[in-house]
């Protein structure tokens, strides 16, 4: 069984605002760094992504892969690998926990990666940790800078449209 890596961060926003950024895949290239393209390939009956194609460029690792998403309630999303050139498996989850009356959110990101090329477990876990930390930092900055504006609850984007 593969080992996973996880980390948490506190975001100064309600869980809904955090999930709005997490679920806005076309905007991932604006805040994730490694994701250069993101395309939603299929949606569920609520309009949430079920499959997403991602083009990654993380320096030495360049890959195009497709992930399947499962939405569990309003505070959790899981994903698993459908296809990839470099990866054997990629399983992850974002879990959101409301704090301070719902105005802050603890975000936990868990990730398990298995690559097709041989790699020491220690190196793989370090890579997972870097991916997680960058993703959480980017998510926090995006949400707290108003990147969640234009959500279904506001009805308008940051330009008032």
Note the main attributes of this structure.
161 residues; alpha+beta; Alpha-D-Glucose-1,6-Bisphosphate, Chain A, domain 4; 7-stranded antiparallel beta sheet; 24% helix; globular; disordered C terminus
* Average pLDDT: 84
**CATH class annotation:** Alpha Beta
Summarize the main sheet. Answer: 7 strands, antiparallel
CATH architecture call: 2-Layer Sandwich
For the secondary structure, the number of strands is 7
Strand content: 35-45%
Protein name: Cyclase
Organism: Streptomyces diacarni
Pfam family, one: Polyketide_cyc2
InterPro entries: Polyketide_cyclase/dehydratase, START-like_dom_sf
Describe the protein:
A hairpin with a 5-residue loop joins strand 2 and strand 3. It is built from three helices and seven strands. It has a seven-stranded antiparallel sheet. Residues 149-161 have low confidence and may be disordered. It has helices at 15-22, 28-31, 121-147, and strands at 5-11, 35-43, 49-58, 61-72, 76-84, 87-99, 104-115. It has 161 residues and is α+β, with helices and mostly antiparallel strands. The chain has one domain: 2-Layer Sandwich (Alpha-D-Glucose-1,6-Bisphosphate, Chain A, domain 4), CATH 3.30.530.20. It is globular. It starts with a strand and ends in a 14-residue tail after the last helix. This is Cyclase. It comes from Streptomyces diacarni. InterPro entries: Polyketide_cyclase/dehydratase (IPR019587), START-like_dom_sf (IPR023393).
């Amino acid at each position: 069984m593969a080992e996973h890596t996880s980390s948490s961060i506190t975001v100064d926003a309600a869980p809904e605002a955090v999930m709005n950024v997490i679920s806005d895949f076309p905007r991932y290239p604006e805040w994730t760094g490694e994701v250069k393209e993101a395309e939603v390939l299929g949606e569920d009956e609520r309009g949430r992504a079920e499959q997403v194609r991602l083009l990654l460029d993380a320096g030495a690792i360049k890959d195009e892969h497709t992930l399947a998403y499962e939405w569990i309630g309003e505070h959790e999303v899981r994903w698993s690998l459908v296809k990839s050139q470099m990866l054997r498996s990629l399983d992850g989850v974002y879990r959101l926990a409301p704090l301070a009356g719902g105005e802050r959110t603890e975000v936990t990101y868990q990730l398990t990666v298995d690559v097709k090329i041989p790699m020491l477990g220690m190196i793989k876990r370090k890579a997972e940790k870097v991916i997680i930390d960058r993703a959480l930092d980017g998510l926090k900055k995006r949400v707290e800078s108003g990147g969640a504006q234009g959500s279904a609850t506001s009805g308008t984007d940051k330009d008032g449209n």
